[in-house]
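Usage

Read records sequentially. Each one opens with the input sequence:
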Amino acid sequence: MTPYLKEIQTIIDNDIGPAGVLGFEVEDYNGLELKLTAPLERNRNHHGTAFGGSLFSLAAVCGWGFVLLKLREANKHGRIVVKQSSVDYLLPVTGDLSVSCGAAPNNVEAFIKTYRDKGRARLVIEGVAPALNGEAALRLQSTYTVIASNPD
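and closes with the structure output:
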């Protein structure tokens, strides 16, 4: 696991309220998407499927983590906040939770350039959680804003 992924996992475990208790884990990062997982046993609803709030939370944390990775790759820091989110629940999740999030490379480049130039920028993240059959169980679109905490 790269230092950036370790940083995200440490923040999840220690600083994002329920995320550590719910078992959110950094699974993979391929440069284009970040993948987080969580066990169904800690995130189950009364139907025995994934609790919608847990799926949304996992997706929101995944999007935040993706933005953090892109900042770190550009040797930047800042305060990341979610500005807006839209989620569609399409199918039940009957196994462990998994969410992948990312953004188009040209949008990431524009985001980093704007952040360097203005000390503030927004990035739209797309996320998806698969059902056991591989179809999308959840689709998420969130806008994250980054504000420079200290000019760097």
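Summary fields computed downstream for this record:
- Strands lie at 25-29, 33-38, 79-89, 97-102, 120-130, 136-147.
- The helical segments are 3-15, 17-21, 52-73, 105-118.
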